[in-house]
Each structure stands twice: as C-alpha cells, then as structure tokens.
Prior knowledge:
It is globular and about 70 Å long. Helix 5 runs parallel beside helix 8 and helix 8 (161-180) runs antiparallel to helix 9 (186-199). It has 460 residues and is mainly alpha-helical. The protein is built from 21 helices and no strands. Among the domains are: 4-35 and 91-180 and 362-456, no CATH class; 263-338, no CATH class.
Amino acid sequence: MESGLAARHGGRVGLCALVAVLLLGLGLRVGEAWDGRAPVYDAQAYAVLAGNLEGGSGFTTGPGATQPASNYSPGLPLFVAGLYKLTGGIHPQFARLVLALIGALSVLFAYLIGRRLVRPPSNPPLPSEVGWRGVAPALAGALVVAVYPALLEYQGMLMSEPLAAALLSGGVLSALWAWDGGRWRWLLAGVLFGALALTRPEYLAISGLVALVVFVREARGDWRMSLVRAAIFLLGLVVVVAPWTARNAVALDRFVPISTGGGQVLFAGTYLPSDGDPEKVGAEVVAENQDLFESQDAQQLRLEQILARLAADRYPGMETDQALSELGKEQLWDDLSEQPAEYAGFVGAKVWRIWSHGPRDVMREPVWEVLHWLLVAFGLLGLAILAWRRRWEALLIGTIFLAITLVSALLVASPRRVLVLVPLLAALASVGVAWLASFGAHSPHNSPIAPESPDSLGRP
Length: 460
C-alpha cells in the first residue's frame, strides 16, 4: 500500500522522479552559487547596494555610480542585506547559496502548477488512481526549469531573475490554492506578489490586473465577497510595498511606489533607430547627436550616462528621469503619428526579441535554443488548451504573459523579463505535452485536461 504522498505524485516511481528532478535543480543552483560567476553590471550594483545597506550607508551606490540608486529595484538588495545582518558581515557566497535554495523552489512550483493544470478541472481522480504517467508532463516541465541555463548562470551572481521566478510561480500557485478555500488565503498571494513587485517593479501594475481577475472570477456568485477577496489580495501587496513607498517619499521628496528609471526605459524602448535592441540605443544616440558627444563616447560611456547628457541638453534644469520621460512621450507620439508602419515593425521586432531566445550567450547554443523554442511552442499550445477548457486559470496566467509582452513592447525589450516567466511557461508546456500524449488515446471526457462542466466553470 503506497503512502498518501507517493499516491498523490504518481506512486513510488513518480515520487522518486520528482525527488530526482528537485535534487538536480537544487544541485545545479548550489554549484553555480558556490563557484560564482563574473557579475554583470546590474549584479555589481546590487552587491554594492546590499553592502552599503549592511554597512549603514543606506540604499546608495556610491560616488562612482553612473545612475542613482533609486533606479534599482530594492527587493534583492534588501534581502541580501538582511542576510548580511544575520551573518554579521558581507558574505556574498552565503547570500548566493540562500538565493539558490529559493531559486530551486521554482522547480517545485512549476511541477505543482503543471500537475494542477493537467488534472481534471472537476471530479479529480483519487490519489490512488493517479499513476506516474499522470504526473509525467508536469515532471517534464519541472525538469526544464531545473536545467534552464540562463536561470542557472544568474544564480551564480546577485541577480533578481531567479528570485523573481520563484516569487512569481509561488504567487500564482498560492492564487490557485486561494481559489480552493477561504478568503484569507488571498493574503499570502498578495504578500508574494508584493515581494515580487519590490524585486521586479513592473509587477506592481500587473498585480492590479491579477486583483481584477480575482474579482471578475469570483463575482459570478457574490460580487461583495469577490470584492473582499480582491481587497485582501491587495492588502497583502500593500503591506509589503507601502514601507518602501513611504521611505521613498522621505528620501526622494516625491511619490515613487518602488523605483525610478521609468523615463529612461521609456525613451530607450521607443527609440526607433535601435531596431528594438536596447544595446544599440547608446551608439545610435551618440551618432545622431554629434554636437553633444565625441565619437568614442559610444564605447566609453554607459547608456544611462549618454541619456543623462541628452536629457540635460533638451530639458536643462529638469531631473534626468523626468526629462527622459518627456522625451520618451514625445518620441512615442511622433512614432505613432508620423511613422505608424515603421513603429509597428519596431514593436514586432521587440516582441520577437524577448520571446525568440533566452538571455545569456549560452542560450544561443543550438541545444538550448531548441529547448527554448520547444518550451515556448508547448507553452503557447498549453495556454490555448487552457483557454478552451479551463478559462479562469488561463485568464490568470495569460494576463501575466500578455502584460509582460506589452510592457516589453512599450519599454525596453529584454529577454530577462521572459526569464522570470520560465516556471509558468513550463507549467503551461505540461498541459501541451499532456494533450498531445492523450490525443486519440482517450475520449475528451476522460482526458486529464477535459473541458469544464457548466456547474464547475473555473473550479480546479
């Protein structure tokens, strides 16, 4: 007689496979964290911020910084500084190891979300009826997350993407869990999305969309209770974010929910000569404004330094990010009104850029490029199947995917945004794999992702 734990995860074979995948994901991450990697520029900045916080200098990047500390999201530096306080000194290897443990949770979360999405939306089978083949698609998705190279490489430095991936997948899992029970379960989902917003600020607005989905889904019954659930979700979010917003009001003397820098990413994200590649923006700005720059500035200055000089010239005396915001709005209006066809192609190139490959050079290697494309293809298939058969789960996850795509289309198009989505994408891919595996072998009624019945729409 198998234990309840084994029965819920496909028997002893399924449970052993799950443990193996989790250990693989954890081992690879711990190995990266232990050895470390040469940090990219943002990782260096996060390390300086965390070190200064621990040393009592506050949220500062020091006199040699090329942009203000407020441009950086505070979540990761605050967390790492807390670890430094606990250990009584600056120990980056220890911080990376703790982050590796958290990053490994995204493997588990991808599996749990995938298993949930694959199982029947109503009348789920008893645990004893679930064989290892029933959890195999979810295990395959978790395996992809465990070995995805870009996530692993960022685990070897202080970067926000692995932490954000765990928080996002954990937040979505907690939201699905909240749909199963009492209204106060939404508090945990809100807290996780609040921590995610501190780590990746674009998720502050996306969390508002998630709250809207919660309200709309639950409003089919009692709209007042639905409003309460959405409010509890937002309460959890505010509890996490509000202290930093209050700190910003004092330190920056203006309302900044999480971070500044929106003007810079708006200008760079609407700069047509870059062809959608943010790495080309600096060189193109230098080339088009030769009265402000020397030719070698394109190589010697960072993008934020180039844009700061442009902003000072166009709007003297105005704060840099505000000036860049004005320039970005003007640029966007000109693009839409004067060159709509070219701008449409520009946006298409940006969307292609974020979805066509993962960040880091390793993702250009053929085997990993193929893996990424399979993940995206099966993920899109899985989302389409969910939209047909389990619309509320599809609406929740699809809203997040669409929002990130739109943010990237408007602002800077970085594949790092999609990297945070990899655990969710893998969970969706599990649905696509399960559908293909069951196609023709089962009737639609018996399919593990069978359509919802009229009296159980949206219920897990």
